Amino acid sequence: MKLSGRIRACSAAFGALVVSAASLVVPGSSAAQSVCKPAASTNEAKLLAFFAAPMAFAAAPEVLSLARGEVAIAGELTAVPRAPAAINASSGACGFEKSENSALSPVFPRPRVALGLGNGFVVEASWLPPVTVADATPNLGAIALAWTPAALSLPFDAALTFRVHGTFGGVNGPVTCPRDQLQLISTKQSCYGSEPSDDTYDPNVRGAEIVASRESGAWRWYGGAGVNAIAARFVVDFTDQGGFVDNNVVEISLARAALMAGASWQAHSTLAFSAQLYSVPTDATTGRLGIAWRVR
Fold first, then answer.
1. Statement: residue 12 has pLDDT above 70
2. Which of 90, 123, 155, 186 is most buried when burial is the number of CB atoms within 10 A of its CB?
3. Phi, psi torsion values for 193, nearest 5 degrees
4. pTM, two decimal places
């Protein structure tokens, strides 16, 4: 898997999910593709959803208070947790039972830019370009629109922000058959070949959230809740030593509740630092550290 900057965090990781036991070769044919849609209760579905959580384009309140024409550039590092052992192997729901090696990278980096549109509206965008680092290559984008109505009166001078967001694109890399799992001993065992797989994981997360925030001096405290629609897709791409091509697909479509809480510190009129705890209780809980610079 060629993730970004060791978003490989999500590479080996995705391998975990990857159910991709699909990369198990069935000799005698030149190619095979099937679409598996495992039940939400299977390890396959749980792993795909697990790695979608840290990739969701969650709110960063330090860039949401922008007037018309104001621009903020931000960067963040999101921790990628290790998949629980209980779901770290495919269950056979997609044709095979196979243990997965999830040697995760500790963080998932993401840049973002925000533009104030006026009347409390802010648009955000992010793109992680296809720059290969180690054996991972991302090509992941995200976009969001937030609205903080000034006329809404809340206790303690708090502000309420309504936000919708989407993550698209994916990450490529050797998830199902990394180099250290290749073997030329038996055609009946997985990863029979000399070249690693080049699999694709697309988290495809769409969501809506409500965030309440309150300023106290240089600090902004916030908490929020939302719902994510996850339509994650994993595509195997492995060619074995005999030329058999495995292009099997695993897809899920799930809805998940999400919670967040955090704080940002305005170190300077144009510079802020932040920390956030983001949780999809059903799947994974992660932390995010961010920095935002208000350009104008």
1. no
2. 90
3. 175, 180
4. 0.84
